[in-house]
Amino acid sequence: MAFYEMLDRNGSVRECYAPVQHWVEQTGIGGLNRRLEEAEAIFRKIGITFAVYGEGGDPERLIPFDLLPRIFTALEWRTLEAGIRQRARALNAFLYDVYHRGEIIRAGIMPADIIYKNAAYKPEMAGFTPPGRVYSHIVGVDIVRTGPDKFQVLEDNCRTPSGVSYMLENREIMTRMFPDLFNQGMVAPVDHYPDDLLKSLKEVAPPACKDDPVVVVLTPGSLNSAYYEHSFLADLMGVELVEPADLYADDGLVYMKTTYGPRRVDVIYRRIDDDYIDPLVFRPDSLLGVPGLFDAYRRGGVTLCSAPGAGVADDKAIYTYVPDMIRFYLGESAILENIPTWNCAKPDECAYVLENLHELVAKEVHGSGGYGMLIGPKATKAEVEAYAHRIRANPSEFIAQPTLALSTVPTLGEAGIVERHVDFRPYCLVGTQLRLVPGGLTRVALTEGSLVVNSSQGGGVKDTWVLQI
Amino acid sequence: MLSRTAENLFWLARYLERAEATARLITMGQRMAILPGAHHREEWKSIIRVTGSQHLFDKDAVIRESDVVEHLVLNGDNPVSIRSCLMKARANGKSVRTALTQDMWEALNEGWRNLESYDVPQARAQLATILDWVKQRAMIFRGATESGHLRDERHDFIRAGCALERAQSVLRLLDVKYYVLLPETDVVGGNRDHYQWQSVLYALSGNRAYHHVYGGVYSPWQITDFLMLNRRFPRSVLYCYDQLSYRLGRLAQWHGQRRECHDSVEAMVSGLAAKTSGDIFRHGLHETVQRTLSDSNRLGSEIAEAYHFA
Fold first, then answer.
1. Cβ of A256 and B97 within 8 Å?
2. What angle do helix axes B190-203 and B3-33 make, rounded to 10 degrees?
3. Of A402, A417, A437, which one is at a domain's C-terminal end?
4. Which residue of chain B has the CA closest to A260?
5. How many helices (H) and strands (E) in chain A?
6. Would residue A218 count as lying in a domain?
7. Nearest CA to A135 among A362, A297, A21, A254?
């Protein structure tokens, strides 16, 4: 049975949801649905959309927004926050280690192969120490709740986790439309995220930077699915949003082309994958990259956020070792549990997976966005067989996890409040210090019974409240 | 500011102005097509020619209003159609979203897929509404720009793009319609030309302004003076040149540097300002329009070069 976050053990409304309950009763379901249309009109007007490729229809879609907030108590947040910060520190320590002495391998805790043979591992980074020893500057930790006191980490995102603009916009819409809900100051604000992001980015300015660091956001361009977020963050930080063609590297320094001529760039918050940032070092066929960028980076002329090769820490096969990393680097035990994961690269675990596939959730190691996964209990026999066939052909490409009883939260339906499954992604910022705004992105599976929260597959978003008292 | 931002802003303004100019042209075409002798003059063909879309038709094809609606309003594959211009204006705006205000963006974004949903008969049935809507998009954008946009170089690139495109659209119109203004055509029959002149003025929203300036009399000299040389009518070529010169002058101040485009625009302004409509007719209206048009094209390239987006 999934835990319904609105109710306690006895079936009464939990205190933290009382104001929302009251609000719903006062406004009525019809009233809320009318307000939802207003909200969608506002989103559409300001252009908060994401692009969907090759499916026809509207090329720029809205992420469905649910009016009812998802709520964490101050106490719950305290645990979450400690767990998230701990994870962000351990993952960065791990990245430093694998690009230097590899102590965790020498200590026999992790096998060398899954690191050094991983496609996300970038040998070009070996021996190089990025400013502040930070590799992943924004760590997005995907968390699910499986019980009143049980939070588990589904996966880590160490490259360029997206979605933070929805956290900010959802709150903006909610405060604009329902100011009364926020009047009592119960809800912790999240609006300082862009300031925190800019501070964190400036803290990792490269050695060559002597003045106030010039920060830019690097986007692949306006056709990218997350382009709205790129421009939104650049705007809120008050920095330039650049495309690769706006930059060039010269003798270890990076410049942007402006109407005044070239201008030095110190810190690049890049929303482009490793493989496409510099055709001289990574994919030579990339039309996107900035030739010489990586050379400038290694020579201390510019800082790349995140560091190339940071993705090795969020790989699904590496994930199973994060609790070990926490113990090894920090000497602590993990505050947030992992989800038990069977790694099909190991023959005994693979055998177990194949035998129990109809009860498990199986995923491609390098997949993302909810694509290429199998939810055993919801799949037909034929689908399970077909997936088993794929696993047998290429076992090291797959992992499997138990089907989780993801918690549900109250969600606005047409006729009343319904329960829908959710997950949660907070964004931990890493500069010379850690910063974490109290909140994050709650994604909700809008289809009844569905466990898939990805926006590309019918998921929606909610405002997430962390109560201050 | 990024050079690409300057480029996007400059072109965004140009595309929006171009969409409006095409809407105005089609409105003029509708008026002219119902005048006596329209078939003989092939009004719609001349409008297709103004926009440089003649390659879409056979040389001898008879062009009707439905062709114009199809290719100059709805056809997303014709780069100069209204639909294409609005899409490009929005795409340029989207990639410099942070350089625009909310209101400016909304003006570009609102209804950006409207024209996709029409077929030709539907669009013809609602042509006046559609063309008004297009003009309104441009006017709302300009209003939002005027009232809310920070007066830094971004603003100057937008206004410069707008002024350059507008000067060119008037010139292109004159280029195709110059024979209407030639005094010799008087012999063909005064009344008809009278209506044609009115239609040209109407297309540029200039009837009333014209009367204010020249009284109720239409003459080729005065209309030419009005559309080329008047410094107070915002759709005259010289007015647009004054605007361009002002905007480029501000850019030179921001940058503390003058470039080739600054000398060119000054020469263009003083060259036109020294002329009378009598001079223009003596040198040939057609030749003058052609030369002015090519000067303005060159200026566009010089601006791009000066600010590193060539």
1. no
2. 150
3. A402
4. B255
5. 14, 23
6. yes
7. A297
Residue range of the domain that includes A261: 207-301
Cross-chain Cβ contact B109/A45 below 8 Å: yes
Q: Residue A13 carries which DSSP code?
A: B
**Which of B1, B91, B98 is closest, CB to CB, to A258?**
B1
Contacts of B261 in chain A (CB under 8 A): none
- Residue B289: pLDDT band with limits 50, 70, 90: very high
Residues A265 and A297 occupy one common structural domain: yes
pLDDT in tens, A250-304: 999 999 999 999 999 999 999 999 999 999 999 888 778 999 999 999 999 999 9
Q: What are phi and psi of B216, to 5 degrees?
A: -85, 10
Answer yes or no: do A27 and A105 share one domain: yes
Residue B95 to residue A259, Cβ atoms within 8 A: no
Chain B residues in contact with A231 (beta carbon < 8 A): 97-98
CB nearest A259 (choices: B6, B98, B106): B6
| DSSP per residue, A265-309 | E-EEEE-S-GGGT-TTTS-TT-SS--TTHHHHHHTTS-EEESPTT
**Contact residues for A51 (Cβ-Cβ < 8 A; gap 6+):** A59, A60, A61, A223, A224, A225, A227
Q: pLDDT of A357-398, one tens digit each?
A: 999 999 888 766 567 788 888 889 999 999 999 999 999 889
Inform me whether the C-beta atom of residue A261 falls under 8 Å from chain B C-beta atoms: yes
Do both A125 and A238 map to the same domain? Answer: no
Nearest Cβ partner of A259 from B98, B105, B307? B307
Closest partner CB to A258 (pick from B2, B91, B94) = B2
pLDDT by 10s per residue, chain A, length 469: 789 999 998 999 999 999 899 999 999 999 999 999 988 888 777 666 665 544 445 666 778 899 999 999 999 999 999 999 999 999 999 999 999 999 999 999 999 998 999 889 999 999 999 999 999 999 999 999 999 999 999 999 999 999 999 999 999 999 988 888 888 788 999 999 999 999 999 999 999 999 999 999 999 998 888 888 998 999 899 999 999 999 999 999 999 999 999 999 999 999 999 999 999 999 888 778 999 999 999 999 999 999 999 999 998 889 999 999 999 999 999 999 999 999 898 899 999 999 999 999 998 887 665 677 888 888 899 999 999 999 999 998 899 999 888 999 999 988 899 999 999 999 999 999 999 999 999 999 998 888 888 777 778 999 999 998 7
Q: Which residues of A touch B113 (CB under 8 A)?
A: 58
Angle (nearest 5°) at CA A303 between A299 and A307: 100
Q: pTM for this one?
A: 0.86
CB contact under 8 A, A47 and B1: no
Q: Decide: B11 and B88 in contact? Cβ < 8 Å.
A: yes
Q: Helix (H, G, I), strand (E, B), or coil: what is residue A412? A: strand
Q: Give the distance from residue B309's alpha carbon to the nearest chain A alpha carbon, in angstroms.
A: 8
Q: Is A59 on the interface with B (CB under 8 A)?
A: no
Distance from CA of A411 to the nearest CA of B (A): 30
Q: Is B102 on the interface with A (CB under 8 A)?
A: yes
Cα A289 to Cα A51, A248, A272, A301, A330: the distances in Å are 22, 10, 9, 17, 36
The pair of three-digit structure tokens given for residue A397, joined into one six-digit string? 């490409």
Is the CB of residue B303 less than 8 Å away from at least one CB of chain A?
Answer: no
A317 & A181 share domain: yes
User: A6 at the B interface (CB within 8 A)?
Assistant: no
Domain end residue (candidates: A364, A380, A402): A402
